[in-house]
Amino acid sequence: MSDQKLFLAVFLGSKDNPRSQAWWALPEETRHAREREGIAAWKAWVEKHRADIVDFGGPLGKTKTVGEHGVKDTSNALTGFTVVRSASHEEAVKLFEGHPHFTIFPGDSIDVMPVLPIPAG
Questions:
Q1: What b/e sequence results for 4-42 when a residue is b if at least 16 CB atoms lie within 10 Å of its CB, and e otherwise?
Q2: For a disulfide at 7, which of 13, 82, 92, 100, Cβ 3.0-4.6 Å?
Q3: pLDDT tens for residues 69-91?
């Protein structure tokens, strides 16, 4: 059995952060050029870490919250996710250092957390 563990990486981004506001203020042609650069860099990141990626995940859309009082539309900073396999939390975090989410795109950060086993009954 492998000593590798699963880690969930959650991509965060706020429309209120100055980098995001600057991104959307760019001329459309400039923003599209940066998007192409970011997508190419993201694809290169995927190729570099392909062996570690369990689920590429993807971008996240509009959020609905379900709770005791029903369903409501809401918003949060969650923008995407990826699941990786790594020997340790520290090694999993290193996979995301310098990621295009925040080096090219205006994302805020990436939270990386272990996926814990479901406790036995």
A1: ebbbbbbbbbbeeeeebeebeeeeeeeeeeeeeebeebe
A2: 92
A3: 999 999 999 999 999 999 999 99
Q: 76: how many CB neighbours lie within 10 A of its CB?
A: 10
* Nearest CA among 100, 104, 109, 118 for reference residue 9: 109
pLDDT digits (tens, 9 = 90+) for 88-110: 999 999 999 999 999 999 999 99
5-114 has CATH 3.30.70.1060 classification: yes
d(CA 121, CA 113): 23
Domain boundaries, given as residue ranges, for the chain: 5-114
26, 35 contact by CB (below 8 A) = no
Query: Rounded CA gap, 75 and 35, in Å?
Result: 23
Which two structure tokens, joined as six digits, stand for 55? 């689920």
